[in-house]
């Protein structure tokens, strides 16, 4: 299974929904980068993704985007194959 990295904050409801969706698709470990605990990582996230909001999800080297992007990918049937390609 591909590695999942999620830029997040401790109190973000969309981050929690993204985590639940990923776990429901068999993801056992999500590497969370908490940008509210590590402010320097916010700049890293914005540079890497071009976005300011959380969550920002990476599956392997693929930037999926935020929760809406993740759930849209799942509805189209693209999430599971992306998770399984390694």
UniProtKB/TrEMBL annotation:
One GO cellular component term: cytoplasm
Matching CDD domains: GRX_GRXb_1_3_like
GO MF term set: glutathione disulfide oxidoreductase activity
Coiled coil: none
InterPro entries found in the cross-reference section: GLR_AS, Glutaredoxin, Glutaredoxin_subgr, GRX_bact, Thioredoxin-like_sf
Listed GO biological process terms: cell redox homeostasis; cellular response to oxidative stress
Function in brief: Has a glutathione-disulfide oxidoreductase activity in the presence of NADPH and glutathione reductase. Reduces low molecular weight disulfides and proteins.
Family named by the database record: Belongs to the glutaredoxin family.
Protein name per its UniProtKB record: Glutaredoxin
Annotated source species: Caballeronia arationis
């Amino acid at each position: 299974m591909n590695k999942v990295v999620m830029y997040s904050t401790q109190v973000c409801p969309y981050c929690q929904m993204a985590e639940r969706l990923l776990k429901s698709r068999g993801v056992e470990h999500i590497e969370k980068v908490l940008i509210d605990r590590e402010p320097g990582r916010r700049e890293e996230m914005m540079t890497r993704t071009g976005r300011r909001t959380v969550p920002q999800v990476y599956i392997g080297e693929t930037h999926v985007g935020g929760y809406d992007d993740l759930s849209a990918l799942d509805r189209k049937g693209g999430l599971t194959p992306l998770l399984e390609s390694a």
